Amino acid sequence: MNINSSPIGIFDSGIGGLTVAHAVTKLLPNEHIVYFGDTAHLPYGDKSSAAIQAYSIKICNVLLQQNCKVILIACNSASAAAFELVREYVGSKAKVLNVIDPCVSYCSKNFAGKTIGLIGTKQTVNSNIYRKKIDDLRQNIHLKSLATPLLAPMIEEGFFNNTISESIINEYLHNEELKEIEALILGCTHYPLIKTQIDNYYQGKVTVLDSSQIVAQSLKDYLVESQLENQGNTSNKQFYISDYTKSFETSTKIFFGEQIKLDHYPLWE
Length: 269
Ligand code: DGL
What we know:
four-stranded parallel beta sheet; six-stranded parallel beta sheet; Rossmann fold; binds D-glutamic acid; alpha/beta
């Protein structure tokens, strides 16, 4: 099989990474996609790094069995805890990408010398990974970060664009830690669903960065540079989840924007 026609593997702790998968399918409509949502183990944001690493390796085995040419970790928490390990584990079998590096590189090009904010899970924020990567670029960017652990479960329960989500979002954004920022990184793949509410809060005074678009563009750049784009013009999309409940089927539509079929693929048998 020609490597160009191999699928792109995308994984997340659950269904939040479907925001990234959706951006990828819009920008790269000819690519085959295999998505894995580890719904049996979500949320990753409150788990230890060791647990997230073990789950991530298991998922990579599934994606490698599907001959994926690229494995995109569409979860900030897993990108923070497991990217280096997964990259070593996968080796030359596939290119491994994460959702943090493209966003950091976007910030270094657009916000040098500025103060920017980050919101994400406890795992992502407490890992300090964004701060380390931003500091390494030496662009004099000052990062202020706040863990916002209520937001992912809130969104998954369908609470967005309503008064309950508005008061939780406003309470977090009002935090002293996020004062005087010029941009805000949405450091969790669930958050594109509340971007409009965050934009409303800032009234155009802060640039809100939806990393799903930035990540999809950087994946496209990689495929073009490496001449790995699929040349065919039909594409398959396969969606696996490690634990199946009817509510995932319903929420999936919210995250992906259209109804999709979920296949149950238990990670541990
Ligand atoms: N989608 C995950 C992320 O991007 C957050 C959800 C979770 O805690 O599993 O960090």
